[in-house]
Write a structure and sequence with these properties.
Blueprint (H helix, E strand, L loop, with lengths): L1 H10 L5 E6 L4 H12 L4 E8 L15 E8 L15
Antiparallel strand pairs: 1-3, 2-3
Length: 88
């Protein structure tokens, strides 16, 4: 996974950012890798995404109802608010 993050960083423009979704099982591992590759200071945030309010029926313990999105910028000081709308 680390090599994929390194390639993704190389492909980003200097003002670019990356958003990665992950479940709670791998959240801390991926966050540690992303901090190493992009730099902790470039972590813009962690967003909670509710995907099923009742949880997943197949979980044995807690019913997971959400995933997480890790957002990192390539360079320190990237301002996401200045992004143009309708880029797609």
């Amino acid at each position: 996974m680390k090599n994929r993050l390194e390639i993704a960083k190389e492909l980003l423009s200097d003002t670019g950012f990356i958003a990665i979704t992950i479940d709670h099982i791998e959240l801390f591992y991926l966050g540690t890798l992303a901090d190493e590759v992009f730099g902790r200071k470039n972590r813009i945030g962690i967003i909670t995404i509710v995907n099923q309010a009742r949880g997943r029926w197949m979980d044995k313990n807690f019913s997971a109802s959400n995933e997480f999105m890790l957002v990192y910028s390539k360079e320190e000081g990237t301002n996401m608010k200045k992004r143009k709308k309708n880029l797609i």
